[in-house]
Amino acid sequence: MVEAMGLHTVQEIERAIDALTTEELGELYAWLDQRHPQPIDVRAQSDLVAGRLDTAIRRALDDEKNGRVQPRQNTFRLGILGSANNAALRKFAAAQLPPSPAVT
Q1: Distance, CA of 4 to CA of 16 (rounded, Å)
Q2: How many domains does the chain have?
Q3: Are 83 and 26 in contact (CB under 8 A)?
Q4: Which domain holds residue 95?
Q5: Higher pLDDT residue, 89 or 1?
Q6: Residue 104: inside a domain, yes or no?
Q7: Distances (CA, A) of 83 to 19, 55, 98
Q8: Is residue 25 located within the same domain as residue 71?
């Protein structure tokens, strides 16, 4: 399939990905997440469904809401899907959790 698109090397695939629009990149992330989830994502999603992260998520969302977080200075991506997965997990968590009470 990749060769049919004229992409024969990893470098050619990387250049093609770099040329994608933001919307196309989002579609690629979603496709990769569905077909090739990273093991950490499978574990995190399992933990979310089981409720093992509820308290930590509520506390983090409360900290963000009340201005108790700061942007990281030297952030880096954990693999090609890092930021997409974080957004997907946050969305998933928000959908799974009931409204949080104030955390002190």
Answers
A1: 14
A2: 2
A3: no
A4: 38-99
A5: 89
A6: no
A7: 18, 22, 24
A8: no
